[in-house]
Amino acid sequence: MADRWARPTDLRGPHAALVPLSQDHAADLAQAAADGDLHRLWYTSVPAPDQVRAEITRRLTLCDQGGMVPFAVLDPSGRAVGMTTYMNIDHANQRLEIGSTWYRRSVQRSALNTQCKRLLLGHAFDTLGAIAVEFRTHFLNHQSRRAIERLGAKLDGVLRSHMTMPNGSLRDTAVYSILAHEWPAVRANLDLKLAPPA
Cα separation of 158 and 173, whole Å? Predict the structure, then answer.
């Protein structure tokens, strides 16, 4: 791993922590996947509770190959409530995507997601020196697209018929990015959202 630009690390804030994913998180993550039957959403990929261990293995294999850095998302109590990753990592050009993210239903639309994005973006830009961070989602996943746009990411375009979904439908992929020179404004916005009320 000596030549890898992005590597597993711990990232912590008051509303969430991101730690290297391991099979130790499987039981919590199986419960998280069952919260709201997230695996039934056709436009996203969340493992069914009985497939969580296999998904952890898949992500760890991609990590070993250098293409992904997977995290378990912990709530303030230390319980794993979801997963996220740095993925499609271009070590040479210092670009990556934040994706393959999901959270149990009961923590969605809370400060946890904002905290996770602040931690991931801060590490990518301030520590790793990323030149760009991408976000990709199904064109029809309006909840995800709104969340990405609220971060301050800009739409680069739509990759039409980009990939085949598990149900056989073709996914149009909306591609967003934040560039290094845009990060200070995005950071200020996220810090304001996370600031305690005056």
Answer: 5
Tokens, residue 180: 């290094």
> Which residue, 95, 91, 145, 119, is CA-closest to 14?
119
The full length of the chain comes to: 198
Among 169, 193, 190, 195, which Cα is nearest to 43's?
169
Q: Report the topology of domain 11-194.
A: Aminopeptidase (3.40.630)
CA–CA distance, 148 with 155 (Å, rounded to integer) = 9
Structure tokens at 84: 């996220």
The set of residues, in sequence order, having a beta carbon less than 8 Å from that of 111 and lying 6+ positions away, is 15, 16, 193, 194
132, 180 in Cβ contact below 8 A?
Answer: yes
| Residues 143-167, mean pLDDT to the nearest whole number | 91
196: which DSSP letter? P
Model confidence at 117, pLDDT cuts 50, 70, 90, reads very high
Q: Model's pTM, two decimal places?
A: 0.91
CA angle (38, 73, 185) in 5-degree steps: 105
Pick left, alpha or beta for residue 85 (phi over 0 → left; psi -120 to 50 → alpha; otherwise beta). Answer: beta
> Is the distance from CB of 119 to CB of 16 less than 8 angstroms?
yes
